[in-house]
Specification:
- The protein is of the alpha+beta class and about 190 residues long.
- Among the domains are: about 5-75, no CATH class; about 85-145, Orthogonal Bundle (DNA Binding (I), subunit A), CATH 1.10.30.50.
- Helices cover about 25% and strands about 20% of the residues.
- It has helices spanning about 20-30, 70-75, 85-90, 130-135, 140-145, 155-165, 170-180; strands at about 5-10, 15-20, 30-35, 40-45, 55-60, 60-65, 105-110, 125-130.
- Strands 2-1-6-3 form a four-stranded mixed β-sheet. Strands 4-5 form a two-stranded antiparallel ribbon.
- A hairpin with a 5-residue loop joins strand 1 and strand 2 (about 15-20).
Length: about 190
Amino acid sequence: MIEKVLKLDVGGRPVSWISREEGALLYCRDQVAWEAGVEEIILRGGFSSVTGARSILLVNSIIATRVIDRTAEFRAGTPALNNTRLFRRDGEMCLYCGAVLPATLLTRDHIVPVSRGGADTWANVATACRPCNHRKADKLLDEIGMRLLAVPYAPNRAEGLILENRNILGDQMDFLRSHIGSTNRVRVA
């Protein structure tokens, strides 16, 4: 069953996840330019008082809209940094000790601490368990002999959508992966 519909712009770039109902509204408003998914959901409406027939609307799992998204986040191509996306990017693993933990036990660590001029950016943050984050404190890695297990990176738009949704259909995942490139950096559980 389709949980979320992958919304694209008219040029085929991934934009966002929308609900089935939001997808139905786009069809009703004639805002769907084309479809790319294999999966469809049937939404059933009311009955016609004239014919007695029930209305049916098919919503595709991947739809491109006629509307162009002009938001700054979309133009940048990089999703906004938040802990949920960060922890998923790193596979819910502390990038210092390798422990895989629930999100409630993870923290965001600034590799170069903010107090020492580091930025709150994808390339300067890593998922850390509380003990490792506490041990590192406001030190640089070289100062205390710690190492990262992976290189932090900024996900692109398609990777960001993978990080947001854990109920992705096969056709949606194939489409998003085609927009990542040859080096898929997102760990998909």
